[in-house]
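Please fill in the sequence for the structure shown.

STRUCTURE ENCODING:
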């Protein structure tokens, strides 16, 4: 899943980026409000983690600009201002969640995952397609009761396809969710990961779950 973090504290920004990347997220980062607004308006993110007080453009003004532009990405606001009226202002500006600093990373991670489930209109952290099961909290995959070990990018690709099960997802859209804007990988690598996933998920006697739709992309579906 692709995440944008907008935070002017460089040490905290680096720590958050590393933490979310270790949890399998693709992460873009911005250290001021103007850069954050540019990235949020020009890329597709699943969640934005937004600092309240930012240089160049205040966090709430950034959030209001996004909502005026019709960007509906879920936004979690971080703030050092611990006051009820501050939380109310953030929520009224269009925030989906609010956390005060200092905070526990595990709680932030849990809240971001909760927003992801809201994005895809799911309450259960487990995804299922035919006999394929994905635990998005443990990042564990099983098919027909057999554990499947995946590398981080393989898992990220499979989870993204599972969130869009039954849909045809283009290579470019997959690439945007697997790589941040600084990555110089090409979309051709998607075919490599698809091939690896098929080898690990499909077995003789079992129906193939990942389908190629010529000229359009890939589709995860049963049968």
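FILLED IN BY: designer on duty
SEQUENCE:
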């Amino acid at each position: 899943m692709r995440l944008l973090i907008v935070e002017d504290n460089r040490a905290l920004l680096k720590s958050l980026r590393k933490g979310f990347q270790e949890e399998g997220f693709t992460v873009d980062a911005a250290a001021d409000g103007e850069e954050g607004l540019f990235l949020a308006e020009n890329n597709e993110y699943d969640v934005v983690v937004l600092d309240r007080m930012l240089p160049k453009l205040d966090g709430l003004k950034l959030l209001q600009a996004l909502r005026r532009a019709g960007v509906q990405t879920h936004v979690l606001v971080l703030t050092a201002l611990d006051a009820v009226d501050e939380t109310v202002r953030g929520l009224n500006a269009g925030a989906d969640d609010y956390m005060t600093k200092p905070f526990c990373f595990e709680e932030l991670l849990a809240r971001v995952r909760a927003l992801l489930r809201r994005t895809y209109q799911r309450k259960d952290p487990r995804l299922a397609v035919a006999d394929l099961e994905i635990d998005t909290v443990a990042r564990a995959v099983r098919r027909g009761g057999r554990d499947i070990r995946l590398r981080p990018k393989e898992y990220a690709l499979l989870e993204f396809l599972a969130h869009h099960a039954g849909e045809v997802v283009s290579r470019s859209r997959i690439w945007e969710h697997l790589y941040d804007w600084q990555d110089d990988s090409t979309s051709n690598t998607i075919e490599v990961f698809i091939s690896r996933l098929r080898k690990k998920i499909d077995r003789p006697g079992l129906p193939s779950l990942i389908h190629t739709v010529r000229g359009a992309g890939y589709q995860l579906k049963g049968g």
